[in-house]
Design brief:
It contains 11 helices and 20 strands. By secondary structure, the protein is α/β, with parallel strands linked by helices. The strands form 3 sheets. Strands 3, 13, 14, 15, 16, 17, 18, 19 and 20 form a 9-stranded mixed beta sheet that branches. An 8-stranded parallel barrel has the order 4-5-6-7-8-10-11-12, surrounded by 6 helices. Strand 19 and strand 20 form a beta hairpin. Helix 2 runs parallel beside helix 9. The longest helix is centred in the middle third of the chain and has 20 residues.
Length: 426
């Protein structure tokens, strides 16, 4: 057994035998501990605080139950994520609804279900929120997303606050934001709660957060002087996870305390009326808790490479192909074997870009061996596809030596379940 990777006391080969591969395995204890760590760290004597889990990182009923039990809120970005939260029985007053292009139907669903806040992306959406709230006879709590112009040092696809970002209203469009706040504050069908920002993902240092807090605090000060008070400041997420050796995210407790302390300094210095601070961690909650198990198929030597092929790939983890994400791996059934071969780990999809790890050292592998790729808990399953008609993988939670399947492997027939030949009246 010493040669077999174990996750929370459960052997990887037994998991693979019981549930097949590819299989995404989460340490349930790690999920619970990280949610608790954020919840306990993000507290301040001078503010109400709320930790909101960004469900786009990974969502299923079992995960949402963990978030609910931890006392955290939930960030959703589509009607589907909203419906999933409702199906899981998640308290709707702890849900915030994000997105840059919410449809009228999605907004109506959110208001019918009674979500806590709608993060409004632009002036047109604000009009649609007011129209839907008036039609339904409810009052929508709105938070305006402002693009603070602070660029985090990360991949361009996950920077969300540069001047041309598709998200939010630029901080330099001051009059637009002020008018949106004024409209929401004076509407019979909306209540203006505050301002939201988000500067990107995989942020390792504290400086971008401090800079963003200072920038948005100055903006809020002007808004309060000219329009109305701001009760809520939502600082988004972006907290990093460690994917490869040498990546060292700041401790959650340090990040949280420094952010909150800076918020308090700005409140006192500028005389702000902000009462509540919110953050939205996603990746940093689930990424490191997840490991994907693959079964090795063939190997192949070319002029300059040796490939190890596995039974998944970009269909269950698009991140390497999408933005060059890096990962660590082990031969899960040969943990103590010498790493004697330099290989490229590739998936089975018909794309040359279906590479999971470009170069790594592994033991000599044979068909049927198991490969474990670490830190796959965020944006693996949630971005998975049926490309090449590959079924979505199963997902398991493990804890205290026991395993439970929380998402079943997709059967082949599910992939053509929606196929039809229906006459459409035009």
């Amino acid at each position: 057994m010493d040669d077999i990777l174990t996750i929370e006391g459960v052997a990887a080969d037994r998991l693979a035998s019981a549930l097949g591969t590819p299989l995404i395995v989460y340490s349930e204890r790690a999920l619970e501990d990280r949610l608790c760590e954020f919840k306990s760290s993000f507290r301040h004597a001078e503010f109400d605080t709320q930790v909101i889990y960004a469900s786009k990182a990974f969502s299923c009923t079992a995960m949402l139950k963990l978030v609910e039990n931890a006392g955290c809120g939930l960030d959703v970005v589509s009607g589907g994520e909203l419906a999933a939260a409702d199906n899981a029985g998640f308290p709707m007053d702890r849900v915030v609804f994000h997105g840059n292009n919410k449809t009228p139907d999605e907004l109506r669903l959110a208001l019918k279900l009674g979500v806590g806040s709608i993060i409004v992306d632009n002036p047109i959406e604000l009009t649609e929120v007011e129209r839907a709230a008036a039609d339904l006879g409810v009052c929508a709590h709105v938070i305006i997303r402002v693009n603070p112009g602070i660029e985090a040092d990360t991949h361009k696809y996950i920077i969300t606050a540069n001047i041309d970002s598709k998200f939010g209203v630029s901080i330099y469009e001051r009059d637009t934001v002020f008018e949106m706040a004024r409209r929401a504050e004076n509407s019979r069908h909306m209540r203006f709660d505050g301002i939201h920002i988000h500067i990107g993902s995989q942020i390792f240092g504290i400086d971008p957060y401090i800079a963003a807090v200072r920038e948005i605090s100055e903006f809020v000060s002007e808004l309060e002087k000219e329009v109305c008070g701001v009760k809520v400041l939502d600082l988004g997420g972006g907290f990093a996870a460690a994917y490869v050796d040498g990546e060292t995210p700041l401790p959650v407790s340090d990040v949280c305390s420094q952010i909150l302390d800076e918020c308090y300094r700005q409140k006192k210095a500028l005389g702000l009326s902000v009462e509540k601070i919110m953050i939205e961690p996603g990746r940093s909650v689930v990424a490191e808790a997840g490991t994907t198990l693959y079964t090795v198929g063939y190997t192949k030597k070319t002029a300059n490479k040796k490939y190890v092929f596995v039974d998944g790939g970009m269909s269950d983890n698009i991140r390497p192909a999408l933005y060059g994400a890096k990962y660590r791996c082990d031969a899960a059934n040969k943990m103590n074997a010498p790493r004697s071969e330099k290989v490229c780990v590739a998936g089975k999809c018909c794309e040359s870009g279906d590479i999971i790890i470009e170069q790594t050292l592994l033991p000599k592998l044979e068909p049927g061996d198991l490969l474990a790729v670490y830190t796959t808990g965020a944006y693996g399953y949630s971005m998975a596809s049926n490309y090449n008609r590959l079924p979505l993988p199963a997902v398991a939670f493990v804890k205290d030596g026991k395993a439970r399947c929380v998402i079943k492997r997709q059967p082949y027939e599910d992939m053509w379940r929606l196929d039809a030949d229906l006459t459409v009246d035009i």
